[in-house]
Amino acid sequence: MTVKALVGDNLSCRRGFKLLFEGLAVSAAAGRALVVVGPNGAGKSSLLRILAGLLAPTAGTVRLDGGGESVGEHLHYLGHEDAVKGALTVAANLAFWRTVLGGGGLEVEEALEEVGLGGLGRLRAQVLSAGQKRRLAIARLLVAKRPVWVLDEPTTALDVKAQARFAAFGRAHLAAGGLLIAATHAPLDLGETDELRLGGRP
Ligand SMILES: Nc1ncnc2c1ncn2[C@@H]1O[C@H](COP(=O)(O)OP(=O)(O)OP(=O)(O)O)[C@@H](O)[C@H]1O
Q1: Which of 17, 46, 196 maximizes ligand 1 atoms within 8 Å of its Cβ, making it the mutation to test the pocket?
Q2: Residue bearing the CA closest to ligand 1, atom 5
């Protein structure tokens, strides 16, 4: 089955006393990026977590068009945290994710080369810089083939070259019919992009 779209209908999200949004319609189609923008605290991360199935909406529904019932098995989710275990080597971190996420993408060493971490595989991950940890998180996208990418500020801490590499990965994923939703404060250079702005008063 081919994933065609990730669709949220009539979504509301309340966190604490705050109603972040309500009655929100979201549609991300395969092959075209959806970028979520808005000020700090507007609810971008909350919306991404709802679309990824990690947070229940206060109201509304999320469905995958094509690909069956569960978003999770089709999903790469990158949160603010890099999900890197400092005590493991760089390569072991990525090998772990490759297994957990089902593989089918690049080999670990190939993916490390692609993100500019070639030769650092045997280092303990705790010594990586912030941008290198982000590169390692992005390498997860390459080691397992998954059609739905939900990415929370994916280019945070990346230098200009790494941002360009990320944009190339994203564009290749979209060109192959993948689906990509990203929250961001900075342009991502993903080609044809739909924009969803949060932060109006619900
Ligand atoms: N677990 C929680 N309990 C209560 N409030 C929360 C919780 N998580 C987030 N919030 C609040 O929800 C609001 C939206 O947070 P969210 O992280 O979705 O915003 P954002 O648009 O991604 O912000 P940023 O641009 O700063 O990353 C914030 O006011 C935040 O304090």
Answers
A1: 46
A2: 15
User: If you take atom 9 of ligand 1, which residue's CA is the nearest one?
Assistant: 15
Q: Which of 162, 157, 117, 149 is nearest to 136 (CA)?
A: 117
What does R_g of the chain's alpha carbons equal in angstroms? Answer: 17
Which atom of ligand 1 sits closest to the CA of residue 80?
Answer: 27
User: What's the gap in Å between 146 CA and the centre of ligand 1?
Assistant: 27
Look up residue 104 and give its DSSP letter: B
Q: Which residue has the tokens 């030769």?
A: 119
Q: For residue 24, give the nearest of 70, 49, 67, 58 by alpha carbon.
A: 58
Name the residue among 23, 29, 28 with its Cα closest to residue 9. Answer: 23
Is-contact 94 83, C-beta < 8 A? no
pLDDT in tens, 131-161: 999 999 999 999 999 999 999 999 999 999 9
111 within 8 A of 105, measured Cβ to Cβ: yes
* Under 8 Å between Cβ of 140 and 79: no
Q: Which two tokens stand for residue 79?
A: 């949160």
Helix, strand or coil, per DSSP, at residue 134: helix
Ligand 1 centroid to Cα of residue 60, in Å, is 19
Alpha-carbon torsion, ordered 148, 194, 50, 150, to 10 deg: 30
For atom 2 of ligand 1, the residue with the nearest CA is 15
ipTM above 0.90, yes or no: yes
pTM across the whole model? 0.95
